Amino acid sequence: MKQSYTPSAQPQRTRLLASLMLVLSFCFLTANDAQAQGFGIFEQGTCASARGGAAAANPCEDGSSVYFNPAGLAGTSGWTFSGGVSNIIQVGDYTADDTGESTDVDSPVSVVPHVYAAYGATDRLGLGFGVYVPFGLNTRWPTDFRGALLGYDNNLQSIYIQPSVAYQLTDRIKVGGGLVVSVSSVELNQRLDLAQQLAEPDQGVTFAQLGIPRNTPFAEATLDADPAVSIGGNFGIQAALTDRISVGARFTTPIKMEYDGEASFRQVATDLVLPAGNPLGAPAGTPLDGVLQQSFTEGPLVTQGIETEITMPAQFVAGLSVQATERLNLLLDYQWTGWSTLEDVPLNFEVSTDDAIVLNYNNSHNIRAGAEFDIDEVWTVRGGYVYNRPASPDETVTPLAPESERNRPTLGLGVKPFAGVELNLAYQFVNQNDRRGRTRGADPGEQVTTDLNDGLYRIDAHVLATTLTVRF
Question: Where are the domains of the chain?
Answer without folding.
Answer: 7-471
